[in-house]
Design a protein that fits this description.
The chain has about 375 residues and is mostly helical. Helices cover about 75% and strands about 0% of the residues.
Length: about 375
């Protein structure tokens, strides 16, 4: 038997069977990548709306400037929602839709989900600004549009999670630990968006969402979704791009579990304290979760060996030193933000005083950097 000839025949038959789907011919144009749409839109939203509302809110508080003549707390909450979903989430969606198929060697599934995620996210962010508009005559209508925006954000979150799990599930490769971080993050996004929808619907028209009721949603989206996704992508990319020493992989499964436990304690504790009104129970749980999360992230950075000398010269990795410094600086701010969050929650739990939400806002900004 001529084995090479048989193998060549089998290979040609395989290519012929899969050519329409997997091996497009010269006459077929490859699909344009969709991630630039997410990245450009996210940057535009941040520059035109996110930073603007933040500056107006900061000016209003610092110098007594009336700003847009709207409720200051509503303005701050709108700023946070624009930055979380219109900037950060859109950015992460675009990056994830680009890198996850490459990480798992499988196409995005379902194929319509990315554009659906984009449409529902942008609609949700756009309708969400109606919370700051209107007067007493239009509060009900504006609140209905605002609620519809929150519903669209929840739908976008579900579409993203479905896409991540379907894409990873369609791969024949073993599921790496980095992918587990991203999958867990998608679930936290769905939970956070669902909580935001619930507390938004139950808020009276024309009124801001009570800060203590919104905190669990913000925690789930910021540290549950954005942070865990960043840790997963970093685990897969930074050791190679930065030429880091060999990762201490033996600790990472435990750090994945402990980080999820920390987020769980933080979100549940904030919900019990702020939504259900049981601070004596919720505050210690939230503080414990914040401390566990802080320890897990610091241990993750140590295991990644992010701040150690590179094992491969930076020039050989084709990475500019400025980019490497920016990555390390962002992780430094992450440590500061998580430490501040844990310290303030622990202080509130021990003293029985309310959690200082303005300080929590400062911690969230440090984490987001």
């Amino acid at each position: 038997m001529n084995r090479p000839a048989v193998l060549l025949t089998d290979l040609n038959q395989h290519v012929a069977r899969h050519q329409p789907e997997t091996f497009p011919g010269a006459e077929r144009k490859s699909r344009r990548p969709i991630y630039p749409l997410f990245l450009v839109t996210g940057l535009a939203v941040a520059l035109l709306a996110g930073f603007t509302t933040g500056i107006i809110a900061l000016s209003s508080a610092a110098i007594g400037w009336p700003g847009l003549g709207v409720n200051w707390l509503i303005l701050v909450q709108t700023h946070g929602r624009i930055q979380l979903y219109g900037f950060a989430a859109l950015f992460v969606f675009g990056v994830a839709y680009h890198v996850i198929p490459r990480f798992v060697a499988a196409p995005l599934r379902p194929s319509y989900a990315p554009i659906g995620t984009y449409i529902f996210t942008t609609l949700g962010v756009g309708l969400g600004v109606f919370q700051i508009f209107g007067d007493e005559r239009s509060f009900v209508v504006d609140h209905a549009l605002f609620t519809a925006g929150l519903a669209f954000l929840a739908i976008a979150s579900v579409l993203y999670a479905v896409t991540i799990y379907a894409t990873v599930g369609g791969s024949e490769q073993p599921k790496e630990l980095a992918i587990r971080f991203v999958q867990a993050a998608a679930l936290w996004l769905v939970l956070g968006s669902s909580i935001e929808l619930i507390v938004g619907v139950t808020t009276a028209p024309g009124q801001a969402i009570p800060p203590q009721m919104e905190e669990p949603a913000l925690a789930a989206v910021l540290v549950g979704f954005l942070l865990m996704t960043a840790l997963g992508v970093s685990l897969r990319t930074l050791p190679v791009f930065l030429g880091l020493p060999k990762t201490r992989v033996q600790y990472l499964p435990w750090l994945l579990a402990s980080s999820q436990l920390g987020v769980f304690g933080l979100v549940v504790g904030l919900a019990v304290s702020g939504v259900f009104g049981w601070p004596r129970v919720g505050q210690p749980v939230a503080a414990t979760g914040a401390v566990v999360l802080f320890a897990a992230v610091v241990s993750y950075i140590w295991s990644l060996r992010l701040f150690e000398d590179t094992a491969v010269p930076v020039a050989e990795t084709a990475v500019e030193r400025g980019w490497a410094r920016a990555v390390r600086l962002s992780y430094g701010w992450l440590i500061v933000g998580l430490a501040l969050q844990a310290e303030e929650l622990a202080r509130a739990a021990m003293s029985g005083a309310p959690v200082p939400w303005n300080t929590m806002g400062a911690a969230r900004h440090a984490i987001a950097l």
